[in-house]
Amino acid sequence: MLQRTLAIIKPDGVSRNLIGTVVKRVEDEGIKIVAMKMIHMTKEQAMGFYKVHEGKPFFDSVTNFMSSGPCVVMVLEGEEAVTRYRKLMGATNFKEAEEGTIRRDFATDIEKNVVHGSDSEENAAFEIGYFFSALERVG
Ligand code: GDP
Q1: What is the pLDDT of residues 103-123, one digit of tens each?
Q2: Going by C-beta distance under 8 Å and a sequence separation of 6 or more, which residues neighbour residue 120?
Q3: What are the helix (H) ranges across 29-120?
Q4: Measured in angstroms, how far is the CA atom of residue 1 from the centroid of ligand 1?
Q5: Quick one: which of 139, 131, 116 has its CA closest to 53?
Q6: What is the DSSP string of 113-138?
Q7: pTM for the complete prediction?
Q8: Could you say which of 116, 117, 118, 127 is catalytic?
Q9: pLDDT for 99-108, tens place per residue?
Q10: Ligand 1 neighbourhood includes 115 CB (under 6 angstroms)
Q11: Please, which pLDDT band fits residue 37 given cuts at 50, 70 and 90?
Q12: 3 lines ligand 1 (CB under 6 A)
């Protein structure tokens, strides 16, 4: 099934010059980038994005981190793009991520794990709408 998903190169990925590396892995997988921009979220915007995690012990920390510097946000499109991109990223905890995944190769702790990807089509629709207007989504 052709799907769209929302991908983020988090502030640690941007500051460590990993934008090109992540983009290359996405393109080499045969997934298309149909929208892309750099943003610097406010704390409130990061809280809105991670609303599902409100109340969890790491909510304050992860929203501080996500608003600590610029991110690259992208809309990806491809057959089964949601699960294929999640597979490219690897597990949330990089120590449990498979060899060759972005997080296994580049994450430095459970929070600073370089990338985000929607975990379902339903969440992808919310997350894409959170960052991109219809005019910004091409392809
Ligand atoms: P994801 O879908 O793999 O990104 O994982 P989750 O949706 O469970 O968590 C969202 C993000 O919160 C993760 O990517 C991490 O950046 C951060 N996070 C998750 N679990 C923890 C934790 O136990 N501690 C901290 N500090 N951050 C966490």
Answers
A1: 999 999 999 999 999 999 999
A2: 82
A3: 43-49, 59-66, 81-89, 102-106
A4: 27
A5: 116
A6: -SEEE-SSHHHHHHHHHHH--GGG--
A7: 0.97
A8: 116
A9: 999 999 999 9
A10: no
A11: very high
A12: no
Note the pLDDT tens digit of each residue in 75-101. 999 999 999 999 999 999 999 999 999
Helix/strand/coil percent split, the chain, to 5: 45, 20, 35
Q: Are 84 and 29 in contact (CB under 8 A)?
A: yes
* CA–CA distance, 85 with 82 (Å, rounded to integer): 6
Q: Which token pair is 47?
A: 């809280």
Expressed in angstroms and rounded, the spacing between residue 58 Cα and the centre of ligand 1 is 8
Banded model confidence at residue 137, pLDDT cuts 50, 70, 90 = confident
Helix (H) or strand (E) holding 43, with range, is helix 43-49
| Alpha carbon of 93 to ligand 1 centroid (Å) | 8
Which residue type occupies 111?
E
Exposure string (b/e) for 60-80, b if CB count within 10 Å is 16 or more?
eebbebbbbeebbbbbbbbee
Name the residue among 88, 97, 138, 139 with its Cα closest to residue 117. 88
The C-alpha angle with vertex 81 and arms to 131 and 12, in degrees rounded to 5, equals: 55
User: Is residue 40 annotated as part of the catalytic site, yes or no?
Assistant: no
